[in-house]
Amino acid sequence: MSAITADRQTVGWIGTGRMGSVLAHRLLSHGCDLTVYNRTRAKAEPLAKLGARIVDHPAELADRDIVITSVAGSQDFVEVMTGPHGLLVNGRRVPSLVIDSSTVSMDVSSEIRAKAASLGAALLAAPVSGNPKVARAGKLSLAVSGPKEAYDRALPYLQMLGKSVTYVGEGEAARLVKICHNLVLGVVTQILAETTVLAQRGGIARSAYLEFINDSVMGSTFSRYKTPAFVNLDFTPTFTGHLLRKDFELGLEAARQLHVPLPVSGLVHQIVVTLIGNGLGDVDFAALLELEARGANLSLVPEGRTISDGLEASDAGA
Predict the structure, then answer these.
(1) DSSP 80
(2) Residues 46, 148: one domain?
(3) In this structure, what are the phi and psi dihedrals at residue 70, rounded to the nearest 5 degrees?
(4) Residue 41 forms part of a structural domain
(5) What does the alpha-carbon distance between residue 192 and residue 210 come to, in Å, rounded to a whole number?
């Protein structure tokens, strides 16, 4: 916080969806001078009540010192960066630093990085680990790659967004880290779904099985915050099956390029495709539990238990 006070910089934000709105809120809570763009302006309006200024095009953020993006995927990133009203439009002033917190392909990121560099802007890839509730609790983790000098400058702002920031190298290294992370995300959720259904088929309450897992050496922050969804069958989306499929396909493509076999990830990718084919692509990917139960001809009912997800807010900026 002291670094911000000593060298205050103006910040732009692109993308106020489920994740972006929470992260932008965190910056405002820390006193940042923030201007925001979102394709659907109404979704950005709540931030105006907290002190943000709203603009109608990404290009209107060109006078900001730093611009941070949080968009759904690669094509959205291209559009807000180099589209007709994009941030990186030739002949315009551009921010000296762009930070992308989305999960996009390494090829697209590399192209945008080159475009930014040609205009005098540095790009940091800074994908985040966690869902909006994790972000609200201040427990996100960020992997960051790009020029080390740019990282050092951005660090105070990145630290406002979550609990840990890890510099992983130059170029697109953070993209690969995030893709690997999301492969683990899907594989772990699938095995949790399989074993939870197996336990229930054997007469064990889902809540009892998951309590044991969470308190064992196999428990994790992730297994804990997915437990309420598994127990009470609340699949309100934080990260959908469609988004998980996108990230698995990015991972499988990276594996092809790097000549790495991913047999388990390949199988789970097909299960995620089946999840979507069964009409469960728009809900939270915890619905892998429902898909597994259907395969076992097991009817699930909510247990109706109040269970902590372990995501108590860690600071006032949450």
Answers:
(1) H
(2) yes
(3) -145, 90
(4) yes
(5) 9
CATH number at residue 187: 1.10.1040.10
Reported for 220-223, long-range contacts at CB under 8 A and 24+ positions apart, including other chains, are 221/139, 221/310, 222/185, 222/188, 223/188, 223/192
Q: What is the pLDDT of residues 173-218, one digit of tens each?
A: 999 999 999 999 999 999 999 999 999 999 999 999 999 999 999 9
Q: Which domain holds residue 232?
A: 176-295
Together in a domain, 260 and 133:
no
* Token couple for 53: 């200024």
C-alpha–C-alpha distance, residues 80 and 15, integer Å? 9
Q: Among 140, 171, 202, where does a domain finish? A: 171
Q: Say which residue the tokens 């990133």 belong to.
A: 77
In a domain, 57, yes or no: yes
Please tell me the distance from the alpha carbon of residue 135 to that of residue 318, in angstroms, as a whole number: 7
Q: Is 39 helix (H, G, I), strand (E, B) or coil?
A: coil
Reported as half-sphere exposure (CB side, CA atoms, 13 A), residue 10 has a value of 13
Q: Are residues 101 and 79 in the same domain?
A: yes
Residue type for position 6: A
Give tens-digit pLDDT for 253-287. Answer: 999 999 999 999 999 999 999 999 999 999 999 99
- Are residues 265 and 199 located together in one domain of the fold? yes
Q: Any idea what the CATH number is for the domain that residue 149 is in?
A: 3.40.50.720
The structure tokens 């692509």 sit at 281
- Write down the pTM of the prediction: 0.87
CA 293, CA 303: separation in Å to the nearest integer? Answer: 15
